[in-house]
């Protein structure tokens, strides 16, 4: 079989045996819904990663058939796999943060918590940076494989191992997202169980009730009339009471 050029991580490309990626991607290419929490998942992003790789594989195959080995290597080489992965990490970070904010805001709305207080519970910029770093770390299996020294692997083997490493990294990313969603559950439940403080309300109610009783006693002549209420009392009794 004729070798022509370098592929993933500098591995040799065998033009005649550029395989389909689907079987190599394993669970990453599963069509069914993969829930991470409740009814939420990263399915659309996962399938967009698979689609991006399929498109690159199709383009690479065209370049190989035309003999343009440099373009084929660039289209489905190590940098391409990392580009797809890094885009997935960025998108997963945004989607996860958006889902966390949605759950927190909904929990606050259910309990009637003021928006100002809910805002204190939302992920901070530092939380966002930490999450992005955690999700990026899931790519270590893929990055380690792509950083390996050149080896005499066939094109199918190079693609298979890259796809396996990507699948491992993606499953690691899903695990981290699942853990982050679970980590916020106590906060979400606390917001949902929030009750408006009633101490001040009771104090105001008691003061108003006491004031009303006092005013009634003054107007009824049961208590001395303070000077500040004398005019009001005189006006009160000029009204056409039945």
How large a portion of the residues is in β-strands, by DSSP E?
Answer: under 5%
> Which spans of ≥5 residues are poorly predicted at pLDDT below 50?
1-7, 10-16
Q: C-alpha Rg, in Å?
A: 34 Å
* Assembly annotation: single chain
The helix count comes to 11
Number of domains: 2
Order of helices and strands: EEHEEHHHHHHHHHH
What would the principal axes of the Cα set say about the shape?
Answer: rod-shaped
Would you report the number of β strands? Answer: 4
Mean pLDDT: 83
Q: Structural class, from secondary structure content?
A: mainly alpha
Report on this structure.
The chain has 242 residues and is mostly helical. The protein has two domains: 3-192, no CATH class; 199-236, no CATH class. Helices cover 67% and strands 5% of the residues. The protein is built from eleven helices and four strands. A two-stranded antiparallel sheet has the order 1-2. Strands 3-4 form a two-stranded antiparallel ribbon. Strand 3 and strand 4 (40-41) form a beta hairpin. The chain is rod-shaped, with a radius of gyration of 34 Å. The termini are far apart. Residues 1-7 and 10-16 have low confidence and may be disordered.
Tell me the layout of helices and strands.
Elements: E1 3-6, E2 12-14, H1 22-25, E3 35-37, E4 40-41, H2 43-65, H3 69-75, H4 78-111, H5 115-121, H6 125-137, H7 140-146, H8 155-183, H9 185-192, H10 199-219, H11 227-236
Antiparallel strand pairs: 1-2, 3-4
Summarize the structure.
The chain is 67% helix and 5% strand. The chain is mainly alpha-helical and 242 residues long. The protein folds into two domains: 3-192, no CATH class; 199-236, no CATH class.
């Amino acid at each position: 079989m004729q070798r022509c050029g370098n592929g993933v991580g500098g591995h040799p490309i065998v033009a005649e045996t550029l395989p389909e990626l689907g079987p190599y991607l394993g669970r990453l290419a599963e069509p069914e819904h993969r829930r991470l929490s409740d009814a939420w998942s990263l399915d659309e992003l996962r399938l967009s990663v698979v689609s991006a790789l399929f498109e690159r594989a199709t383009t690479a195959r065209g370049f190989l058939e035309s003999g343009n080995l440099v373009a084929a290597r660039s289209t489905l080489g190590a940098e391409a796999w990392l580009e797809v992965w890094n885009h997935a990490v960025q998108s997963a970070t945004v989607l996860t943060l958006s889902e966390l904010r949605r759950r927190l805001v909904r929990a606050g709305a259910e309990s009637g918590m003021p928006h100002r207080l809910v805002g204190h519970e939302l992920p901070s910029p530092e939380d966002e940076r930490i999450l992005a770093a955690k999700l990026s770390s899931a790519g270590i299996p893929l990055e380690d494989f792509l950083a390996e020294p050149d080896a005499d692997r066939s094109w199918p083997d190079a693609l298979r191992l890259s796809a396996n490493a990507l699948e491992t990294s993606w499953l690691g990313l899903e695990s981290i997202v699942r853990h982050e969603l679970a980590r916020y559950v106590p906060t979400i439940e606390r917001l949902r169980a929030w009750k408006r403080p009633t101490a001040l309300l009771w104090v105001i109610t008691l003061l108003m009730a006491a004031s009303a009783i006092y005013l009634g006693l003054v107007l009824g002549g049961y208590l001395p009339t303070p000077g500040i209420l004398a005019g009001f009392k005189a006006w009160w009794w000029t009204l056409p009471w039945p």
